[in-house]
């Protein structure tokens, strides 16, 4: 009999719903926890979760890192504009700017992934978005016209014209609202040594990364 992992997460933590969804997808048992919203428990072992500014920065580090790793590229630098859900989470927004795009913070750092890459990004928020839309530009010296998709799926043209259709496409595929993959909205093609990438993801991507890190931390405690 396969032992099921027990995960406890406080519902008030910003990505609690996405983390619970990803954990259940892995076959883990998930129950709500009370106490510190930024502490996850795996098999009764507490693991600190990022929150506030730390979580905001980690989102971009994970999103850009996932693009780099799954495209299979080794850029020297990456820049991006990230259009984020106004409520800070995917799904219907309960709060946020109405009929506006709100200019957010400018961030920089190193990506999370196989090989850290320096990046900078501007974040803007939009009430209408139910996912994270990323307009990225990677510098790497590719010959003009080089097509790079790696192991990422390019969405069909009929659904890639806007994020509402793309999000509904994921729902229709049974992926829910917290799918952990990155999806390309068009085929990346190098221009003048740079690779422009248009992609989207959900909160499930960051939740999936945090679950992996929490599992590693829990194993470290056991050793």
From TrEMBL:
Supply the name of the protein. Answer: Uncharacterized protein
